[in-house]
Amino acid sequence: MAETKIFAGPRLRRIRNRLELTQTAMAAELGISPSYLNLIERNQRPLTVQLLLKLVAVYRIEPEELQGVGGGVGQLREVFADPLIAAELPGEQELVEVAEIAPNVSAAITKLYRAYKEQAGRLSDLSAILAREGHETALAGTRLPIDEMRAVFERRAFVFSRLDAAAEAFHGRLQLSSPDELPAALKAYLKSEHGIVVSPVPAHVMPDLRRRFDRHSMRLFLSERLAPPDRLQELAAEVGLLVFAEEILRELEALKLSGSEARRLARFELARYAALALIMPLAAFGEAAVRLRYDVEALAARFCVSFAQAATRLASLARPGTSTIAFFLLEVDHAGNVLRKRGADGFPQAGFGGGCVKLGVHAALTQPGQVLADPIEMPDGQRFLTVSRTVEGQPGDFGDRVRRTALLLGCELEAGQSTVYGRAVKPLPLIAAGPACRLCERRGCLARAEPPVTRPLGLDDQVAGLSAFDFQ
């Protein structure tokens, strides 16, 4: 029977150093020559089972210390999953080698990374505090292209007037009698003016894509997995990229993004905006919104779009000199990741924040499909009306879990009284919320997950407050 061989030189050297033994001393205790031990430590000879058993008996160590790399690989995997450095690692073998050969270095890298993430979070909190007090700051966490693009869209008004005007003019030339005629009209336009044929494609043919334009065959492929509203948006986005190319370029230049990748991401976002502007023209949608008292579900039915599409369009309605309500939008997932922040006047980060667990957007995830309307009061006295509802993602193969997110549409509470939701929340008590736990100084909050960075912790062992974190 062949003898099992284990190459564990670095781990054996680590144990010897921990025991403060020389190679000569350890070799004598194990009954082997120092030169043979040296070869084992350099992985030029295997650690046999017999020698492993002798190490366990003589030094009372666990066999796992010599047979595995422990949790080092998992910790390093977490570090190198960060988007900032994910592309630096060609494969996992290097992680195994680092954890195997230099476990202390592996632990130090993990500790440094976690400290970096903690400091990035604190800098973000400090930036939010300064912004709330009217001070601009360049403090931020990781500045990836996606972060730069998101920051620009969050700070500015979600209004692109050039695209609205171009989309409204184009929509007028189609001479539609009802919104449900738009898909056929766009397909006819692409075929007659650009020679592009729109073809639905089964999910198994295009499993990873929603839309693909083949320039050689002049065909636009749309996945059959898409619901009709999503298919319409992809179709309208392709039309927008062709017809509104100049307007998209001018709006893109006005954003003043620093990198080419951030510009490309912003261009995709502008194409999606153009698609919604084409599906829901500004004037017609604005009139319908006022007439329907900003009922998102009624607007979605009127324009044959989804709840998310109608809510997103509402966040772009307000214009200077008009009485249209200035809505803002927030989208989160089950894990609390913020996916989108938009606002007709910019997202109110300083006044509203959007990081409080008391907001209806989190409760909506436990009540799929139900619209929740809540009156919110912030610590500084600002009051908001919020409307929340879940959004079901694109279905996958059988057995795949459908991605579910939640949208929050908000506005000032006083302005929200003219909406269909204002009447529903009028008798309800105000929900005492905050911008985020680290920025909120409400005392006795049962939902608090972290202490505020603006107050020292209360470390009195004679007192226990209602909150998980007492502070002075």
TrEMBL record:
Record-linked InterPro entries: Cro/C1-type_HTH, HTH_RamB, IrrE_HExxH, Lambda_DNA-bd_dom_sf, ScfR_C, TransReg_Diox_bact_type
Keyword hit for DNA-binding: yes
Keyword Transcription regulation: yes
Signal peptide: none
Pfam families: HTH_3, Peptidase_M78, ScfRs
CDD domains: HTH_XRE
Source domain of life: Bacteria
SUPFAM superfamilies: lambda repressor-like DNA-binding domains
The HTH cro/C1-type domain, residue ranges: 12-66
Alphabetically ordered keywords of this record: DNA-binding, Transcription, Transcription regulation
Similarity annotation: Belongs to the short-chain fatty acyl-CoA assimilation regulator (ScfR) family.
Protein name: Transcriptional regulator/transcriptional regulator with XRE-family HTH domain
Organism listed in the record: Rhizobium halophytocola
